[in-house]
């Protein structure tokens, strides 16, 4: 008896991975192009296919402190194999997501803060002082992973800007709601709009990152344009996309997936190879672009930066740490 092996969409060959050295070389070429005679005075000549956008924030400076000993996932796979249920339940939703208008994009920051704010995302970037690039591991709860260069700024810069008061224990994030553009939001069994939350202690951790770009240019819609959260030590569903509202609150919010299936998707969602999902193991993961599975690391390899967060929070909040 013979079997036909059907290759998964994300199971790619080693040759399909962009190494860090090659990516850095490409960034240097883009910088030279941006300063060369190809950019005419008073114009934005470089097309999206070459430069990503005419936005002056890109390509951003690289923060070399945040790097990992893994090869970068090739851009075309990291930007076409994505979860974004607002546009459908399959991974290939980039065409549908392209309909979302992301300019202008108004962000509201409210709740238990001294200085609430409503501001366009580009104005926020200027107010904060620009963006940087960090390479992070990314681990999905579905047991696949990637390694990508995010552009953006630390979440704690927003916290400093709005000055939450002492009653603010959690930070709640909310994505857009527009069923006319996002067909998945017409499915009433999901509690739209998508919401997620983390503790104020997690929000002030150095790794908590607000991403506005990827691979040296602006985020494409399917990856959460123009503004998303990135929490590299947690499963990916916590890293909410296309954020329109951030609220500082006292009581613990319940995220969309936790509300739908609390036994499968809990509040903490810290990457832990020793705690299986009810329907599959979390002990190993499939990197996009590679055939072999690799062992999953506790906190996705970021234990040194985040493990201290959870020494007291479990008892403090009376919740299960790894759920």
The structural class is alpha+beta
Main β sheet profile: 7 strands, mixed
Task: Please tell me how large the radius of gyration is.
Answer: 20 Å
Q: Can you give the mean pLDDT?
A: 86
Topology:
Layout: H1 20-35, H2 48-51, H3 75-78, H4 94-97, E1 106-111, E2 117-120, H5 121-128, E3 132-139, E4 144-154, H6 156-162, E5 170-175, E6 195-199, H7 200-203, E7 209-214, E8 217-218, E9 228-230, E10 243-249, H8 256-260, E11 284-287, E12 293-295, H9 303-306, H10 310-317
Parallel strand pairs: 1-10, 4-11
Antiparallel strand pairs: 1-2, 3-4, 4-7, 5-6, 5-10, 7-8, 7-9, 11-12
Task: Describe what you observe in this structure.
The structure is a single chain. With 323 residues, the chain is of the alpha+beta class. It has a single domain, classed as Oxidoreductase, molybdopterin-binding domain (Sulfite Oxidase, Chain A, domain 2). Helix content is 20%, strand content 20%. It contains 10 helices and 12 strands. The chain has helices spanning 20-35, 48-51, 75-78, 94-97, 121-128, 156-162, 200-203, 256-260, 303-306, 310-317, and strands at residues 106-111, 117-120, 132-139, 144-154, 170-175, 195-199, 209-214, 217-218, 228-230, 243-249, 284-287, 293-295. Strands 3, 4, 7, 8, 9, 11 and 12 form a 7-stranded mixed beta sheet that branches.
Features:
disordered N terminus, Sulfite Oxidase, Chain A, domain 2, globular, alpha+beta, 323 residues, five-stranded mixed beta sheet, 12 strands
């Amino acid at each position: 008896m013979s079997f036909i092996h059907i290759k998964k969409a994300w199971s790619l060959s080693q040759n399909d991975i962009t190494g860090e050295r090659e990516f850095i070389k490409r960034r240097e070429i883009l910088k030279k192009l941006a300063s060369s005679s190809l950019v005419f005075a008073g114009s934005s000549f470089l097309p999206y296919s070459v430069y990503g956008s005419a936005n002056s924030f890109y390509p951003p400076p690289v923060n070399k402190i945040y790097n990992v000993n893994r090869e970068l996932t090739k851009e075309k796979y990291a930007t076409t194999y994505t979860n974004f249920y607002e546009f459908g339940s399959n991974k290939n939703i980039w065409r549908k997501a392209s309909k979302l208008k992301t300019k202008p994009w108004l962000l509201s920051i409210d709740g238990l803060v001294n200085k609430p704010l409503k501001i366009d995302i580009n104005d926020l970037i200027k107010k904060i002082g620009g963006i940087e690039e960090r390479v992070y591991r990314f681990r999905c709860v579905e047991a696949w992973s990637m390694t990508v260069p995010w552009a953006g700024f630390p979440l704690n810069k927003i916290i400093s800007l709005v000055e939450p008061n002492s009653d603010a224990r959690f930070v709640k994030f909310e994505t857009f709601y527009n069923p006319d553009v996002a067909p998945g939001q017409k499915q009433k069994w999901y509690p739209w709009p998508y919401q997620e939350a983390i503790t104020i202690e997690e929000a002030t951790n150095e790794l908590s990152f607000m991403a506005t770009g990827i691979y040296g240019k602006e985020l494409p819609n399917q990856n959460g344009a123009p503004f998303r959260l990135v929490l590299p030590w947690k499963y990916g569903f916590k890293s909410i996309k296309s954020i329109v509202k951030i609220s500082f609150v006292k009581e613990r919010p319940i995220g969309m997936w936790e509300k739908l299936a609390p036994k499968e998707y809990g509040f903490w969602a810290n990457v832990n190879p020793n705690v299986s999902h009810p329907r599959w193991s979390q002990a190993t993961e499939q990197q996009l672009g590679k055939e072999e599975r690799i062992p999953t690391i506790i906190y996705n390899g970021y234990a040194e930066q985040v493990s201290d967060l959870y020494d007291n929070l479990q008892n403090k909040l009376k919740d299960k740490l790894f759920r």
